[in-house]
## 1
Amino acid sequence: MKEKDNFEMIINLRKVIMSKKTNRSKKAIAMIRKIIVRHFGAEKVLLDPLLAATVSKNREKVSSRIPVVVSKIGEKTYLVKLAVKHE
């Protein structure tokens, strides 16, 4: 994959919705980290507090798709933020 400073992607969390209601937000955050490690080869993944709050806002009803922006901070360190569309 070509290296970019900012990379937008949509993360599918459909598998999380099939899990128990009480564990959904925790599993969603773990799945986001796992996907970023797999796609970018990251050793350290930092989540923006806004993204974590959006995912765990209601721990039973997690969105099935979340748009995110992945930014490279350092050597194998990435920051994941919620993608917000500007009008």
Note: The first strand starts at residue 6 and ends at 12.
## 2
Amino acid sequence: MSTIGTIGLHKLSPRLLFVFMFFLVSVHASAQNISVVDDEDTVVTLSEPATRIISLAPALTELLFSIDAGNRIEGVVEFSDFPPAALTIPIIGRHDRLDMERIIEIDPDLILAWVTGNPRGSVARLKEMGYTVFMAETQALEDIPSLIEKLGRLTAEDNKAQDVANDFRNQYQSLQSVYGSRPILSTFYQIWNAPLISVGGDELINDIIELCGGRNIFADIQQKAPKVSEEAVLNRNPEIIVASGADDQRPAWLDDWKEWNGLTAVAQESLFFVPPDLVMRPTLRALQGAEMLCEQIDSAR
């Protein structure tokens, strides 16, 4: 039996009793803390589940709703438009220009930030002001389930998040098993036409292309959304051209490539469209976009 168990708490001196009780309270508080490691390898700790969240990226807003934590969000950036309920949340700026005064007014207990999408200076200032900031960055489909689980931990929606993450992994593995061994086709992904913008190798869309058995013709470029030339596209002569555009409508400029009869993609009538939100946002809907793109690439084989 321990010494304390032997002599009883009532026999301790007041000073020792205070120290012992402080130790017990500290251990209890530590046990209640919630800690996760964000995508900058920083340990983010909350004393209790987040209830007043500001999301600085539309994708992060969408992921919170997917684990039933959308009711915790007090502020979002522009274009946070899915699910429709997100449109009712106050806007605190754009992803690249934050309204710091509005953020201070909301006084969040957790801020979800986007590593490569939010101004680093503004995010650093928020941290200096004492706000708890979780930094997120997903470059591949496989990163999404882990992020979902961490958001679940921060909001005490662990069970829901685990179910959603596992379902995502299962669907991802199913796509891998179907398309992983198909013949590889060179693919040009066009985000915009003027200027001509594509995707580099360090990007979610590149990962989706590879999942589907495609090869991004600009995978050798490390920029996420590099400007490329028409000549470069012609020289690399893709077998498939996929465009996204501004919304869920096929952009008219995709057909401009038909002027180049020598392009393999044009000769084979392999010009396709995928709604941008289905492949550019690292959310559950990325699997919908992946399935759509995989079917399109497969039809060109």
Note: The longest strand covers residues 185-190.
